[in-house]
Design brief:
Helix content: under 10%
Shape: globular
CATH topology of the largest domain: UDP N-Acetylglucosamine Acyltransferase, domain 1
Number of domains: 2
Mean pLDDT: 92
Largest sheet: 11 strands, mixed
Order of helices and strands: HEEEEEEEEEEEEEEEEEEEEEEEE
Distance between the termini: 42 Å
Strand content: 35-45%
Number of helices: 1
Radius of gyration: 17 Å
Strand order of the largest sheet: 1-2-5-8-11-14-17-20-22-23-24
CATH superfamily of the largest domain: Hexapeptide repeat proteins
Structural class: mainly beta
């Protein structure tokens, strides 16, 4: 059981005639024009940028950044130190392990920015799990209930129910919806 100073950390919005509540730690910053679903918890030092949408019953750990125009589904768990950049879509029930990394530009340059119209889209489908410190290179899809092992680097699409690991990540088995390994290559 948690105890919170609800007067300073519980925020509510009025939408379609009823109140929807979510939790935001007082050290976090939520920009204007953000949608946050009921029952979502946003912990220490997070930043949710304008235009982002976060579903219901999500948990965002310490130091999470959600960029503008990012869509996060319902029941998503994002562990500490994760940045979800513009161009990334996270479907329902996804787990993002601590310090996993997303990119949105294959050839970035500080002196020659190309702009968001050149970002490559990344999709993490329903129920997928991304392990701690894994990197998802932009322009790829992680399939439904797929599991990417900790420290892996995803450089191609990962099929539904696949177990992927390594640098670069290779398919090395299958998993079920509960995360049990059902086959090894």
């Amino acid at each position: 059981m948690y105890s919170f100073r609800l007067t300073s950390v519980r925020r509510s919005i009025l939408r379609e005639g009823f109140e929807m509540a979510y939790f935001v730690h007082e050290s976090s910053y939520i920009d204007e024009n953000v949608q946050i679903g009921e029952g979502t918890r946003i912990w220490h030092f997070c930043h949710i940028q304008s235009g982002a949408s976060i579903g219901e019953r999500c948990s965002l750990g310490q130091n999470v950044n959600i960029a503008d125009a990012v869509r996060i589904g319902n029941g998503v768990k994002i562990q500490n130190n994760v940045s979800v950049y513009q161009g990334v879509t996270i479907e329902d029930g996804v787990f993002l392990g601590p310090s996993c990394v997303f990119t949105n530009d294959l050839t970035p340059r500080a002196q020659y920015p190309k702009g968001k119209e050149h970002y490559r889209q990344t999709l993490v489908k329903e129920g997928a799990s991304i392990g701690a410190n894994a990197t998802i290179v932009c322009g790829h899809t992680v399939g439904r209930y797929a599991m990417v092992a900790a420290g892996s680097v995803v450089t191609k699409d990962i099929p539904d129910f696949a177990l992927a690991m390594g640098v670069p990540a290779r398919i090395c088995g299958t998993v079920d919806e509960h995360g049990n390994i059902t086959e090894r290559c």
